[in-house]
Amino acid sequence: MNSKKNTLTIENLSYAYENGDRKQKVLNDINATFESGKIYAIVGESGSGKTTFLSLISALDELQDGDIKYNNKSLRKITGQEFRLKYVNIVFQSYNLIKYMTAAENVEVASDFDNRKADPNKYLASVGITAEEGKRLVGRLSGGQQQRVAIARALASNSPIIMADEPTGNLDEDTEDKIIDIFRDLAHKDNKIVIIVTHSRQVAKRADKVLTLRRGHLA
Amino acid sequence: MFKNMLKRSWLSIKRKLGRTIILTLIFFMMANLVLAAFIIKSAVSAQMDYAKSNLGGTVSIQADMETIRDNQKEDIEKGGDPSEMFKNMARPSIDVKTANEIATSYTSYIKDYSYEVSASANSYNLEVVETKGPSMSGMGMPGGFGFGKESSDDDSTLDSDITISGINAYAYIDGVANETITIKEGEYFDEDSADAAMISYEFAELNSLKVGDTFKIKNIYTENSVKLTVIGIYDSSEARANANTIYMNTETAAKFLSTDDYNDGNYDVDNVNFYMTNSDLADEFVDKINTEFTELADENLKVAVDTSEYDRVASSIESVGGFANTILIIVIVAAVIIVTLIVSINVKDRRYEIGVLMSLGASKKNIIGQIITELLIVGTLGFVLASVTGTIFAGTLGNAILDSQTASSNEQSEKNFGRPGSMSGMPSPMGGSSSSRGSAPSMPDMSDDSNMKDIMKAGRDSEIVELDINARPEDYLLLFVTGYLVIILALIIPSVNIMRYQPKEILTGKE
Question: Does the pLDDT of residue A140 top 90, yes or no?
Answer without folding.
Answer: yes
